[in-house]
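Posting this for the archive.
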Amino acid sequence: MKNLVYAVDLNGQKSETTSSNGFIIDKTSPELASMEHLDQNLAHNPSFEDVYGEAIDWKNITNTNFCDGTESLKPKFWNITIDSCIGVLKSDRNIAYDGRSFIYVKGEISQILNLETNHLYRVTLVSAHPPVLGAVLANKEGYIQLNHQTHVFIVYTKRDKDSTVSTDIIWHRHTFYFRSVTNKAILRLGSMTGNTGILIDNVEVRQVILHTDDYAESSGKQVHAHFIALHRWSSIHASWGFVDAESPIIDYMWAIGYSEGSTEIQAYTSVGVNNFAYNYNVTLAHTSLIHITVIATNAAGLTRKAHAEDFIVDLTPPIIMFVNDGLDIVLNDDFNSTCFS
């Protein structure tokens, strides 16, 4: 709808008619959208397997000077900021999150990504604290920046009570979403404070396609959620998909509770126009059933609510009942009596 305006003076002279820029009458709420994450990882050398020289053996982490600027310690396709302490680590043990290598960062690393303008992208990574002197004193913080949007994540440092090896790594998984404004963007990853740095592995950048159809309404995939539990520390992460063709979405609010729509764990909290959120300050009881609710609001003040599929908090590791190297005597006797009788 548009307004047409003209003016008439005392002499009866009439001006030209001018039109307003118009407005849309919107009576529809934001639509639910399912999120399809494409398979292609747009990050190069995401697990730091390719190094200019030779990666450092994990056993030598406490005896290595990461700040001497040695080129052979640096990963390919990643840029290192000045005064940063960087080194790629490897281990014959299965301690890396993906592959055999990961990176130690005290400072910042970055990479230029080729993207499509005005598209949504998901960035995931895992982080951990290094088992060096002083690393267990307090939680550490890392950050991720893309398109001048910066998000801080916490790296929990208290060792799990069941860990018996001092060099065990406890990986944290982090998920973020960004919308591209150009066809190129700089992805920056770094540590915030402290002298010990952080460990990073398995960086993934994937394009997200939003689908608005009957499948989106019934699939239950509009809100994705997961939790991380390490020792007595827990965090909840969620992401969601909404679209609105008439009025822009201006705010998202999310809540966490023990039943659908409830707020016992977290009251409704605004995250602006971010389509993801996380809460690092929650305590989750074993076998709790968790529900996450999201409300989207458009510029017309209309809202739409969506729920994540509930999930159970499992704080217990698997229990190995037995380990059998080959067939035992009983099985062998049964096999022989069956085959040769």
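The two ends are 92 Å apart (CA to CA). Confidence is low (pLDDT under 50) at residues 160-166, 337-341.
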